[in-house]
Amino acid sequence: MTHAGSSEGAAAGAAAVIVGAGEGTRLGAGVRKAWVDVGGESLLERSARAFAGVPGVVERVLVVHPDDVDEVAHGAVAARLRPCGPFRVAPGGATRQASTLAGVRATSPSVRDVLVHDAARPFVRPERIAALLAALASAPAALLASRVAATVKRAGDDGRVLETVPRDALRLAATPQGGRRELLLRLLENAERDGFVATDEASLFERAGVPPTLVDDDATNLKVTTPGDLLLARGL
Predict the structure, then answer these.
(1) What does the mean pLDDT of the chain come to?
(2) Interatomic CA distance for residues 164 and 53, integer angstroms
(3) What are phi and psi for residue 137, nearest 5 degrees?
(4) What distance in Å separates the CA atoms of residue 220 and residue 173, rounded to the nearest whole number?
(5) Phi, psi at 122, each rounded to 5°
(6) Residue 135 near residue 213 (C-beta atoms within 8 A)
(7) How far apart are the first and last CA of the chain?
C-alpha cells in the first residue's frame, strides 16, 4: 500500500474505497477504464473528488491497477487530487471483488464504516453520499439504488414475454454501498475462502442475513461500461 498524504489516527467516520483497477475491455477506449477522459478529467479523479469534503468521510483509498500505483501516489494524478484531501493508494486484484478486498484492508481499522464506490460512476452526488452515511447511522449496511421507471418484462427462452413484472418493489443497485468495516472485511474474506463471487457488496451482506437499507439515488449516477455509456457521460 502506498500513501499520498496521511489520514492515520481517524477515530470514527467512514472510509471511501474507490475501485478503479479494471481494464475496461468492454469500453474499448484504448486505456484502462480509470483513465478514460470525461470533460477533461479521468473517471477515477472525478469519482475520488466526489467524496472530498463530504462530512463523515474521513479517508479515501483509491484501488488501481498495480502498474498505475506509482503514478497515482506520486505523479501528476497525485498532484491534482492532493488539494482535495489526503488519500491512500492500493494495488487491485484480478477481479473487482479482489480489488475491493484490497481496498477495505487498506482502510484504517479505526473507521466504523466503509463505502465502496466504482470509479466508473463519476457523477455520484455528494448529497447522496451524505444520505447513505445518514442511513448507516442506524443500519449495518446500505446502498444507493434508483427506482425503476420503465416497464419490466420477464422473457422466456424463446424470446417471448412471460410476464410483466410489478416494478414498485424493484430497485437498480448503484454505488457507493457498504457498511460496518469489520463486518464487510469478514464477508469479503469469507467469500474469497469459499470461492463465492458477489456482483456487489450488498450481495455479501444479504448472503450473511444482513439486508442492506436502500437509499434513493438518481439517474445521473450512471456507470460507464460501454461506448454508449461514455457518450452519455460526456454529454453530462
Answers:
(1) 92
(2) 43
(3) -60, -30
(4) 13
(5) -80, -5
(6) yes
(7) 34
User: What is the C-alpha R_g of the chain?
Assistant: 18
Give how far the C-alpha of residue 27 lies from the chain's centroid of Cα atoms, to the nearest Å. Answer: 18
Q: Which residues contact 121 (CB under 8 A, 6 or more apart)?
A: 47, 174, 175, 221, 222, 223, 224
Residue at grid coordinates 498495480: 66
Closest to 2 (Cα-Cα) out of 62, 88, 60: 88
Query: What predicted TM-score, i.e. pTM, was given to this entire model?
Result: 0.92
DSSP codes joined into one string, 79-134: HHHGGG--EEEEE--SSHHHHHHHHHHTS-TT-SEEEEEETT-TT--HHHHHHHHH
Q: Are 141 and 205 in contact (CB under 8 A)?
A: yes
Residue 56's closest CA among 226, 153, 216, 176?
176
How many residues are present in the chain? Answer: 236
Cell output for 153: 418484462
Peptide bond between residue 55 and the one before it cis (omega within 30 degrees of 0): no
pLDDT for position 67 = 95
Alpha-carbon distance of 200 to 172, in angstroms, equals: 12
In the predicted model, is pLDDT for residue 1 greater than 80? no
Q: Which residues is 154 bridged to in the sheet?
A: 163
- Provide the 10 A C-beta neighbour count for residue 46: 20
pLDDT-based confidence at residue 220 (cuts at 50, 70, 90): very high
Q: Which of 200, 228, 224 is nearest to 24 (CA)?
A: 224
Element holding 74 (H helix, E strand): helix 69-74
Q: Are 4 and 72 in contact (CB under 8 A)?
A: yes
